[in-house]
Recover the amino acids of this structure.
């Protein structure tokens, strides 16, 4: 037993059996409306009403992807759900279910995993009602790691790929541009101790001053419902902005064999961070000219013939975005 | 660049971009016959011909689940596929696809991930032809971790649950009992240095002497095709033996509200290891009395009224099996 700050004894994963730990975690997880056979067997069985299903997976690792000094277990659960839900939405699908594999140090209090489950549940409820957790796995590791695989239902829609943009289309985005990166920049600049290590006390101060920017980084709320809405409105291409607008817009341009020109006046006060900041998980889509843009989409540019990305007509070749092998030095908590 | 044993320069993940690394890995991965939209978009789209799909996930962590001194990257890829495929088979389904998330130290040679992809490919080809990798994620971590999520097609069958065993049924198994645990016991006893740490040179010696037992542990070949065969033959309950026969048979008994009596004369020379050894990934199923047992299934006992597990009529209460929080001390490579 370890003693928590409040003086109550906390059972750790090393003390509980896997079965006991799961017994505490499972009741907190959200149910999926697609469940035919739920957790407890070797595998789950889900419904796929239109005989297709959409699948994506994403892993978050302590250090490069989150720090306990900045993220609570609840935040991590929420973000792990949100980032996967947005990949499902970006295909034009409605998220239906998640499976969640966690590897945690044996010193982890079981209550941390309960909080993580609460974050998964509340993230699903807020962003994709009806989506739930249908299975999982719990392992021990020196490095806290969570892998989420998410599923979605196209409900008869054609999937919206990256490759369908055509010259003349409008480029539009739903959700913030650069907010998550600005939040992260604040954390690295101010929520650290004198050695540059993440620090909880300084974090609390930054959070009080900039709750929205810090929240955009730690507990993103991507516009999941706008994915299916975009598909219904005739979106020709779509993706979720995980690696920054510049890098992700280039991916659409390359996959579609077109160019993309963004309007700098539509990119907010800090055009640089809007272009290069990652992890917003906003939806970038292209629509035929004249389309009434659905939901929260706003026009930010146009698809043009040619190749590559330009901003206000000038080529934009900065790399921008986030590469896990370039951005992480292997240290820091 | 680091120099490998053979003197050639090896590019590590820290030197390659994620995109370059994926470009080398992806062509080696097996294709899935269920693919509608494959890798390269935000998510994959798969076919579910009978409007249902089966899902399971499992994570393997360096240390508790494998050691590089004993497993090659190829072995790890194979085993990560095999253990997930057997969970799909245990529902009576045919495995169709995998998604694979990997977190690896930045010092990992990209060629190691190519070998891992080869293991995934060959494991799928040998155990579940037509099953392929439809997506993935690559992250950096101090602890090598692989999370696989597998999908399956019931092709109109009812899923076989743990809860359907009825008194009078035959208990049968397809695949080895205790071989993987015997292999692991050999490795811990003899493939270690004087400090008890896994040692590659000693491992090679053990492998030469006991290729089948070591292979059962490091590169298991569960009878995937026997899962759907059991369902077709009318299996009333089924699971994959991941945690040992005793522990897993008790799970079937508990879920079904029955007892299970195993015949010790059907459990091989070492009854203890057959009962308590984990990780065989053999299939345990119950069939109505008089069923012609399909594929590799052989009778090993009977479902009885009552509760719990007995062997030769005597209660067997030993725990047996593997719990990740009990079996791993957090050290050793």
């Amino acid at each position: 037993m370890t003693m928590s700050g409040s003086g109550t004894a906390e059972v750790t994963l090393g003390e509980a059996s896997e079965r006991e730990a799961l017994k505490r975690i499972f009741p907190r997880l959200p149910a999926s409306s697609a469940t035919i056979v739920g957790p407890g067997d070797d595998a789950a069985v889900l419904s796929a009403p239109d005989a297709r299903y959409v699948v994506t997976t994403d892993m978050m690792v302590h250090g490069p992807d989150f720090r306990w000094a900045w993220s609570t277990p609840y935040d991590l659960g929420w973000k792990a759900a949100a980032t996967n839900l947005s990949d499902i939405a970006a295909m034009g699908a409605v998220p239906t279910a998640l499976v969640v594999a966690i590897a945690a140090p044996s010193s982890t209090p079981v209550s941390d995993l309960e909080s993580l489950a609460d974050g998964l549940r509340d993230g699903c409820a807020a962003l994709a009602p009806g989506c739930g957790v249908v299975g999982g796995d719990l392992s021990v590791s020196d490095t806290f790691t969570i892998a989420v695989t998410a599923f979605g239902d196209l409900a008869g829609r054609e999937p919206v790929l990256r490759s369908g943009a055509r010259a003349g289309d409008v480029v539009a985005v739903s959700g913030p541009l650069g907010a998550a990166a600005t939040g992260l920049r604040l954390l690295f600049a101010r929520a650290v101790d004198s050695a540059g290590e993440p620090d909880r006390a300084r974090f609390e101060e930054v959070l009080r001053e900039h709750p929205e920017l810090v929240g955009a980084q730690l507990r993103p709320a991507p516009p999941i419902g706008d994915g299916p809405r975009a598909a219904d409105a005739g979106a020709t291409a779509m993706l979720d902005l995980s690696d920054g607008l510049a890098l992700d817009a280039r991916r659409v341009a390359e996959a579609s064999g077109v160019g993309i020109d963004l309007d700098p006046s539509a990119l907010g006060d800090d055009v640089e961070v809007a272009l290069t900041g990652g992890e917003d998980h906003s939806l970038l889509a292209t629509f035929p000219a004249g389309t009434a843009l659905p939901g929260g989409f706003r026009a930010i540019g146009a698809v043009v013939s040619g190749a590559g990305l330009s901003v206000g007509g000038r080529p934009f070749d900065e790399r921008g975005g986030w590469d896990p092998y370039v951005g992480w030095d292997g240290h820091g908590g």
